Amino acid sequence: MKDLTPLRQWLREHNLAAFIFPSTDPHASEYVPDHWKTREWVSGFNGSAGTAVVTLNRAAVWTDSRYWLAAEEQLANTPFEVVRCRRNTATAEELIAWINQENTHNENLAVGIDGWCVVESYAESLQNAAMAAGMTLRTDLEPASKLWTDRPELPTFPIQIQPLEFAGETAQDKMKRIREAVYATGADATIITQLDEIAWTLNLRGSDVHCTPVFVAYLALLPDKTILYTNLDKITPEVAQYLSDIHVRTAPYQAIADHLRQSNDLRGLRFLVDPDTTNNVIFELLCLIDTIDNRPAFPDDFYANAANIAIANRAPIASPVIVHPSIIAPMKAVKNDAEIAGYRSAMHKDGVALVKFLRWLTTGEWKMENGKWTMNDEVVTEMSIDRKLTALRAEQPLFRDISFDTIAGYEAHGAIVHYEATPETDIPLEPRGLLLLDSGAQYQDGTTDITRTIALGPLTEEERTDYTLVLKGHIRLAMAKFPAGCSGTQLDVLARYAMWQQGQNFLHGTGHGVGSYLSVHEGPHQIRMNYMPAPLVAGMTVTNEPGIYKAGRHGCRTENTQLITHYCDGEFGEFLQFEPLTLCPIDTTPIRREMMLPDEIQWLNSYHQHVYDELAPLLDDEADRQWLRQATKEI
Length: 635
Known about the structure:
Shape: globular
CATH architecture of the largest domain: Alpha-Beta Complex
CATH superfamily of the largest domain: Creatinase/methionine aminopeptidase superfamily
CATH topology of the largest domain: Creatine Amidinohydrolase
CATH class of the largest domain: Alpha Beta
Number of strands: 30
Number of helices: 20
C-alpha cells in the first residue's frame, strides 16, 4: 500500500488513533496464506515476523534481529520506520506507548486490530496496556476488507490423505488421546485452531500455505461429535469417504462463528482453550456460550475411566472456558517409529541432492570474463543456486515442496539472518568469501532443515575465526548428554560458550522443533537464551543452528536437524542425547584447527564418517562418491 491516505481516512471515519497489523492469520500461523498478509500489504515488508502500526501521522514496523537489515532495505524511502525488537514480536506495552505519543496531537483514543488475526493472550495484553494509557482497544474492525482492492481469495486447493505408513497412528487413536487429555483437565471439548495441529490430528495435508502442507480449517472435538470447518470444495470424494469412515462431520469454514453463537448443542460444555493460539473472536464466542448444565451424552468409551464419570457428573459450570496450553503440541512433537523412519528416509534423499549440489558448486571452473566471474561459463548468483538446489531435490522420490524460502546469502548478505534474494538484491558469486545457505524440503515422509556455510575461495582470518566459533558451538550442543526434563534454555549456553569468550553472540534461537511433513518450525520445545520451559523429550526433533553475523561483512551458520534419543539410565535417572539426522558434509576448509578441541575434532570426524557411510551407497555417480569421500575425510 504505497499511499496511506485512504487508510488514514478510514481511521478517522471509525474514530481510531491507530490500527495494528500483525503477521498472523486466524490460526496463529507463522506462514500465512496470501489472503491474510495484511502487514505486507500495508507496509511492503515481507519477513515472516513483524508488526506494522499506522497512526494518523506516523507508521512503523517492529521486527526482531533476524530481519533488522532486511526491513531497513525494504522500507527505505517509505512512510514506515523500522523499530528493532529484542524479542520475536513487539510487546503490547511498546506498541501502545508508541501509539500514545500521537494522542497528544489528536482526540482519537481508540486503537484497532482485527480480532480474527490476533491471539487472545496478546489481545488481552493490548487491552490492558490501552486502558492504562487511557485508550480503548477495538477488535471488531478490519480495513483490508474494504481498502485492499485486489486482495487474494482464500485458497481452494484440495485436501490430501497422509498415508498411515508415514503417519504411524490412526486419526481415531489421535482423537481418542486428545479427548482423554481434554477430559483430564476438567474440560469436555476443544476447538483446534492451529492448522498443523488439525492436519496432524486427522492425518490430512494440504497446500494452502506456502512451503507448509496444511489447509485452512477449524476442528471442533466435542464429546459426541467431531466437526471439520473448511471450504467444502476442497474435500475430494476420497477425502469425504475417509472423513465419514473416521466419523468426522464437515461444515463450511465461515460457519464456525454462527455455530458458536447459536450454541444450543454446546450449552453446558467446558471448552479447553489455549489463549496463546486461539484468536480473540473464537475465544470471546466461547466465553459467551450459555453455561446451563445441559451436556450432551458422552461416548460410551468415555465412561471406561472412573475419573471421567466424575467429570460427567460434576456440578453446573460457572465458566465455559478452561485456559490451558495446547495439549496437542507436545503430542505432535514426540515422533512415533513411522515418523522417525520417515525422517531418516527424507534425510537420505536430501543428502543425495545436497552432495550433487555441493560438488557442482565447489568443483566448477571459475573464469573472469568481460569483467564478471563465471563458473563453467555461467554467471552464478544467489537466486540461480537456489533454483539449482531445488531442482536437484525435486528429482528425489516423494519430494513435494521446499520447507521454507531458501536463504542464500553471499558475503555481506550472509549477515542478514533471514535474507531472501530478490531480482533487485540478487548478486553473483565469486571464487572468494563465504556463502551462507539455509534450505529445506518437504518430502511426504519427512521435513528437512539444514544450513551450511561454504567457502568459495580465499577467506579472511576473521571469517575463518567466526566460522570455527560457530562450528565449535554446534558441536558442543550436538555432544550434550543431559537429564530428562531439561528445557532447551538449560542447554543453550553450550552453543554460545566459545563465541561468548570472544565477546560475540547471536540473537536468534539456537534450535526449534521440525514437523513430520508439516511445519518446519514447531514447538512447544525450543533451544534459546530466553526461558522456554517445555522439556526436551526422547522422540522430539530439534535443530542445532548457532551463528555469527557481521553487518556489511559476512555471516556464518551451521545447522543440523537432530533427534532426541535415550542415552542411559542410572542412579540419577534417565539421560538423553542428540542424534544428528541431517546427512551432509560440513565444510572443513575454513576451520582454524588450532581452535578446535580434541573431542570436537573427534565428533566432526565421526559425523563425517557417518555421512559417508549413509550416502555413498545411494550415489550412482562415481564422481559424486569421490567428492563425498574427499569432503568427509578426517581432519
